[in-house]
Amino acid sequence: MSSNTRLYYPIEKIRGNLSKVSINSFYKVAFPLSNRSGAAPGLVSWLKSAGIYDTKDTNGLDPLEAIELMCSGTVLPGPNFKTTDTIGNRQGIIEKYPILRQYPELTMTFYVDTNHKIIRFFEEWINFINPLYSGTGVVQSSSLGQDYPVAGNENNYTKFRYPNEYCQRVLVTKFERDLNTKTTSGNETTVFNSSYLTYEFIQAYPSNIIVSPVSYQSSEILTFTVNFNYSRYIVRRNLSAAKIYESAVTVPDTAIQQSLDPNEQTFNTSKWNGYSGTEYYNNFGDRKQDATNTANFFGAA
User: Is 213 exposed, middle or buried (0-12, 13-18, 19+ CB in 10 A)?
Assistant: First the structure.
């Protein structure tokens, strides 16, 4: 039972508890987009026509996974209550009670790739929410951007789509260094996963793109920050963004060796019997998740 009567603990007794702290550089964001009902075309179809799903220069990754891995920072949200004051129920006391649960904006910052696909992905999502119309209908986008010179017509106008067409679910998963740790016994290896949390943001959409300044001063990596609005979020434990993990799975050593691809930052479990999927890390470093090292990724010294 918790109390303040015990103020001293031997270090040997609590060392294990104090060493189990979470590291903020182990996380994964995901955009499981879909064509929602009522949209013609849907968001995915719109993005495909705009060239966002082009697999060129993604090094074998799914185009959305390539975008997700460039997320250099985000936040784990926390709700707050809007309260009201109750005065006079008890003499001389002002009481506060919650009347509304509020959620903060979700903010994500991305490194911008040399093909500027990060910028175009969110710009086209915004264009889908509030498309441009000409005299002949919606002005579509292609891999070259919005249709020109039609898009530049001064008589064009915009209209908003319904929320059920553009709102999507966005996932943020917080995991730890010991994800997929392995123990070996005989000719079998057991892979265990640490506890991890997945925040699932419901009815999310980009509401604000923060300006990205450029200048002739010292060169830095260009970043792109996006704010998302959403209706609410739910938190799930031990459920990854890709939904490919199990609490423990035992596989032969040969399957482990076949699953490790030395040429990629992946741990491919697609060859495991009854356990499929590919795990992509966002640390750009070694496979053991020792650090988030952007210098390794960008080739810096």
Answer: exposed
What ranges do the domains of the chain cover? 23-80+95-175+197-208+217-240
User: What pTM does this model have?
Assistant: 0.72
Task: For the domain made up of 23-80+95-175+197-208+217-240, give the CATH fold.
Answer: Pnp Oxidase; Chain A (2.30.110)
Write the burial class of residue 254 (CB in 10 Å: 0-12 exposed, 13-18 middle, 19+ buried).
Answer: exposed
- Return d(Cα 120, Cα 105) in angstroms, integer: 21
Q: What are the b/e assignments for 71-104, b being 16+ CB within 10 Å?
A: bbebeebeeeeeeeeeeeeeeeeeeeeeeeeeee
Residue 28 CA, distance from chain mean position: 5
**Cβ 140 vs Cβ 171: under 8 Å:** no
pLDDT of residue 189: 66
- 164-221 tens-digit pLDDT: 999 999 999 998 887 776 777 776 766 666 678 899 999 999 999 998 889 999 899 9
Burial of 229 (0-12, 13-18, 19+ CB in 10 A): middle
DSSP labels for 158-220?
E-PPPHHHH-EEEEEEE--TTTTEEEEETTEEEEE----EEEEEEEEEEEEEE-----SSS--
As a whole number of angstroms, the distance between CA 297 and CA 300 comes to: 8
For the stretch 260-284, pLDDT in tens is 443 433 334 333 333 333 343 444 4
> What confidence category does residue 37 fall into, taking pLDDT thresholds of 50, 70 and 90?
low
CB burial class (10 A; 0-12, 13-18, 19+) of residue 21?
Answer: exposed
Answer yes or no: are the C-beta atoms of 43 and 36 closer than 8 Å: yes
